[in-house]
Protein: SAM-dependent methyltransferase
Organism: Streptomyces nitrosporeus
Amino acid sequence: MTTGTSRPPIDTGRPHPARVYDFLLGGKDNYPVDQAVAEHLPAEARAGAFQQRAFMHRATAWLAGEGVDQFLDIGTGIPTAPNLHQIAQGIVPSARVVYCDNDPIVLRHAEALLISSPEGATDYVHADVREPGTIIEAAHEVLDFGRPVALSLLGLLHFLPDAEDPYGIVRTLTATLAPGSYVALSQGASDVNPEGGEQGTEEYGKGGIQLALRTRAEFGRFFEGLGLVEPGLVTAPEWFRSAPAPKPEFSGMYVGVARVR
Ligand SMILES: C[S@@+](CC[C@H](N)C(=O)[O-])C[C@H]1O[C@@H](n2cnc3c(N)ncnc32)[C@H](O)[C@@H]1O
C-alpha cells in the first residue's frame, strides 16, 4: 500500500536532494541538474553518502537485534539495496516498516520498498516531514504506536533550516513514540571541515536548495530529553556498537541513536 499517491511530476529543471544523493551513491536515477551539483561538492561528499548509508545499515541491524520490530523512516531516499526493511526483516522477519519521503522520484520507485517479507509489512507515505501529524496518522495503518518504534531521519535534517523548526518537528515526532522507542538521526556537520561545508552550502544553494549544516552542539540539541546510546554523538564511521570502528575515517556527517524514556 502507498499513501498520498497522486503521482506528482518529476521536475528535471532543478536539482533534488534525493537525486543528488543517488548520484553520489553511483545510482542511475538522477538528471544533469543533479549531477552538476554533485560534481561541484567537496571531495568528501561521495564518501559521506556511503558512510551515511552504512550507518543506516548498522543502526537498523542493532535496533532489530535489540528486538525493535517497528520502523518509521522519514527521508528514505531512492531505493538502494539493501534498504532499511531488508536489513530489519533479515533479523526480525515480522518487522513492520513505514517509509516516507516528499520527493516524487522516490514515490515512483516506492514499489521496491514494498516488497516485504511474508511475515512483516511495509508501507510508503508520500509526505513532507514538515507535516509530522500527517505522517504519524498515515503510519498508524501499519505501526502500533502503543509499542516501541524506531524513528529514523537520516541525511534529512540538513535540508531543514532553523526557520522551518526542525527541532520542533523532531520533538513532535518523538512525542508520539512509546517509551522504549528509539530515534536515529544524522546531520551534515558545519564544524568538521568548515571550508568544505561552505562549498557544499554554496553549490546546493545555486540549485535552490538551502543546506543547513550544524555544529556538533547544534546537532546534540535534537536529542534533548532522550537517552543517547553508546557510542553517543559521533561521526558516521565512528558509530559501532559491538566492535570498535575499524580505522578512523574522516567524515562530515554526525550521527546518533537515542532511546525514548
Ligand atoms: C540524503 S537523502 C538520505 C536518504 C536515506 N535516508 C539514507 O540515509 O540513505 C535525503 C532524503 O530526504 C528527503 N527529504 C528532503 N527534505 C524532505 C522533507 N521536507 N520531507 C520529507 N523528505 C525530505 C529527500 O527527498 C531525500 O530522499
Notes: The chain has one domain: 2-259.
